[in-house]
Amino acid sequence: MKKNLFFLTVLVLFSGCLLPSLHPLYTEKTILVNDDIIGVWIDNDIQDYEKSKGFFSTERWEFERFAEQEFRYKGSKQYNLVVNNFMRDTSIINSLNYELYNSQEKNFYALKYFSGGMGKGLFRRPSEKMIMHLTEIGGNLYANFYPWIPDDNNPYEGIAPSSHRFPNLMFGYERFQSNFVKAHSFMKLKLENGQLQMYLFDEEKIENLIKKNRVRLKHEIVNDELVITASTEELRRFVKKFGNNDDLFVEGPLLKLTR
């Protein structure tokens, strides 16, 4: 039986403009830390941040350093709670009088993406939660995105209402989770003076390069979509060679830092 592959990537953010890759663009040795990206970013044309969160909201990008945090009740190890950025529920922690005991920052980032739209609450699309690594290739800055998916462990079990659940991106396919393959995706960034410009690889042009044998990049066509299977080393060589070719990029959103 042929296994169906569902690539859970940040493609939902740009309607197919990001290429899914089975391997990351970074290695452990090439991870770059640049905390200038930390904060809340909105469209450069929006003048009022508070209005951007209103009924007619705009898309919003929230970056913070990924961290594993331990909270304790009155310093007792017996009553502790270990969570990360995506699992942290401040309202529950505060109501239980838990205090931060220890925090271990990682060398990568947590991204919470909120789409724009009309309405609040149930009428708003849920945020996309991504792990983001930064890396530098050929003097350019790149972001590598990877989906964060909660496991079955509920850190609030026994100390909060059982109805407190984290959304599962598998949409209820618990028995068939092996059919879902998480993929990486990446884009070029230009970060300066409180502005963040995103550049997305043009999938159609890269596919044409491959078809014309102008570039060798291992790949597969899955459900009519180009899926990159090249190793990290091959990816970095490709990006280094074509990273300054503006024709291979689609200009994405221009964001400004609000806080």
C-alpha Rg (nearest Å): 20 Å
Task: Record the strand order, biggest sheet.
Answer: 3-5-7-9-10-12-13-16
Q: Count of DSSP helices?
A: 4
Span between N and C termini? 51 Å
Give the DSSP E fraction (strand runs of 2 or more residues): 35-45%
Descriptive notes:
The protein is mainly β and 259 residues long. It has one domain. 12% of the residues lie in helices and 41% in strands. The chain has an 8-stranded antiparallel beta barrel. Strands 1-11 form a two-stranded parallel ribbon. A two-stranded antiparallel sheet has the order 4-8. Strand 14 and strand 15 (225-228) form a beta hairpin. The protein is globular, with a radius of gyration of 20 Å. Residues 1-16, 121-126 and 162-171 have low confidence and may be disordered.
Walk me through the topology.
Elements: E1 6-8, E2 31-32, E3 39-43, H1 49-52, E4 56-57, E5 60-73, E6 76-84, H2 90-95, E7 98-114, E8 117-118, E9 128-137, E10 140-147, E11 180-182, E12 185-192, E13 195-201, H3 203-211, E14 219-222, E15 225-228, H4 232-242, E16 249-257
Parallel strand pairs: 1-11
Antiparallel strand pairs: 2-9, 3-5, 3-16, 4-8, 5-6, 5-7, 7-9, 9-10, 10-12, 12-13, 13-16, 14-15
Key phrases:
259 residues, mainly beta, eight-stranded antiparallel beta barrel, two-stranded parallel sheet, 16 strands, 12% helix, 41% strand, globular, disordered N terminus
Q: What's the short story on this structure?
A:
12% of the residues lie in helices and 41% in strands. The chain has 259 residues and is mainly β.
